[in-house]
Design brief:
This protein is an alpha+beta fold and 115 residues long. The protein has one domain (2-16, 25-113): Roll (Pdz3 Domain), CATH 2.30.42.10. It contains three helices and six strands. The chain has helices at residues 2-15, 56-60, 81-88, and strands at residues 29-36, 42-51, 67-71, 74-75, 95-101, 107-113. The longest helix has 14 residues, at 2-15. The radius of gyration is 14 Å and the shape is globular.
Length: 115
């Protein structure tokens, strides 16, 4: 149980906003995720929890409940948490390629261009 608390704390720090937020552009999405592992945590599941209106994520077609199958060819489950963090906090102008499973169980390719 103690290891689970340490892992949770580590992941919160890993996915938290940094002080150079002015250099990053938000996609307009809030993620829900589960991860496993201690020294090299891997994402087990990544699900869209919230999409901001008129955001790059909404414009690309991402919807609440969408389950990410891969981001930039990093398959989930199995993508390292540090790698996923880099993809989910992109610089301005980045184009991110997602494969998602929507609420109907259909697989879709989504491209989010961060403004």
């Amino acid at each position: 149980m103690q290891y689970q608390k340490v892992i949770t704390l580590f992941l919160l720090i890993l996915f938290s906003s940094n002080s150079s937020a002015d250099k990053k552009i938000k996609m307009g999405v809030t993620w829900g995720y589960t991860a496993s592992g201690f020294f090299s945590p891997e994402i087990e599941e990544l699900i869209v929890k919230k999409v901001v209106a008129n955001s790059p994520a909404e414009q690309a077609g991402l919807k609440v409940g969408d389950k990410v199958i891969s981001v930039e060819d990093c398959n989930i489950p199995g993508c390292s948490a540090s790698k996923a963090k880099g993809y989910l906090k992109p610089d301005s102008g980045a184009e991110l390629h997602f494969v998602i499973e929507n609420n109907k169980g259909e697989i879709e390719n989504i491209v989010i261009t961060v403004g």
